[in-house]
Design goal:
Strand order of the largest sheet: 2-1-3-4
CATH superfamily: Glutaredoxin
Radius of gyration: 17 Å
CATH topology: Glutaredoxin
Largest sheet: 4 strands, mixed
Oligomer: single chain
Number of strands: 4
Order of helices and strands: EHEHHHHHHHEEH
Helix content: 40-55%
């Protein structure tokens, strides 16, 4: 459900995920959730929905791409070497779960348009594939995920109509959906991503171990089947 979380059918488990395309822990978190679903016997009854969050809201699509280490250095007032070392640590953590991060040629840009593409993909039943492709485009392929032509190519990569995707982006068809996600995150007190909400009730923050996701799936599945009423969410933080 574009731009709106927590509505759910009583016979399925919905996992709502707030993330950003250029958030390294979001890519890890998505991968760890996927690995947890591989261990979960009711995975076919789980729907994962992605919601937009801007890790760097000050960046716009009009800004020139910048290297992530330079951006990290400028944002936190760190020496460039320290920022690069921090990214190296993140790269190693990602490698341990099968991801290939290449910060040396990543291009940090505004991601609003990339989020619009995610919402477009959701209308075609391809949101998960699109989100994964966007992550790989940014972290591994070094592509500019603010460039419409690049986004059109990525849409085609996952089987979407390239021209339809470009038309949706050019017309800002899903701009309101992106903003609604961002506002909803604020309303629920979500201050960092990735942020996962299971069955509209149980929150998991950060790229937690696979076992934590399996436990959240099991608990929320049992409660979803046992009771059709979803409770409210209290947002947390931590990674």
């Amino acid at each position: 459900m574009t731009g709106e979380a927590f509505g759910r059918a009583t016979d399925r488990l919905v996992v709502d995920v707030w993330s950003d395309v250029m958030c390294p822990f979001c890519y890890m978190g998505d991968t760890l959730l996927e690995q947890a679903l591989e261990k979960f016997p009711h995975a076919s009854g789980v729907d994962v929905r992605y919601h937009s969050f801007l890790l760097m809201p000050g960046l716009t699509e009009d800004d020139a791409p910048v290297n992530p280490a330079e951006l990290l250095s400028a944002k936190h007032g760190l020496p460039l070497e320290q920022a690069q070392a921090m990214n190296d640590q993140v790269t190693e953590r990602a490698r341990q779960i099968g991801l290939d991060y290449r910060f040396d040629h990543a291009q940090a840009v505004g991601t609003r348009t990339a989020h619009q593409l995610s919402h477009f993909a959701a209308t075609q039943g391809k949101q998960h594939e699109m989100v994964q492709r966007l992550f790989k485009a940014y972290f591994t392929d070094g592509l500019n995920v603010a460039d419409h032509q690049v986004l059109g190519d990525l849409a085609a990569d996952v089987g979407l109509d390239r021209d339809a995707a470009l038309a949706a982006l050019a017309g800002g068809e899903f701009a309101d959906a992106v903003e609604a996600d961002i506002q909803q995150a604020r309303q629920y007190g979500i201050q960092g991503v990735p942020f996962f909400v299971f069955a509209g009730k149980y929150a998991v923050s950060g790229a937690q171990p696979v076992e934590a996701f399996v436990q959240a799936l099991e608990t929320s599945w049992n409660e979803t089947v046992g009771s059709p009423t979803a409770a409210g969410v209290t947002a947390g933080s931590g990674r």
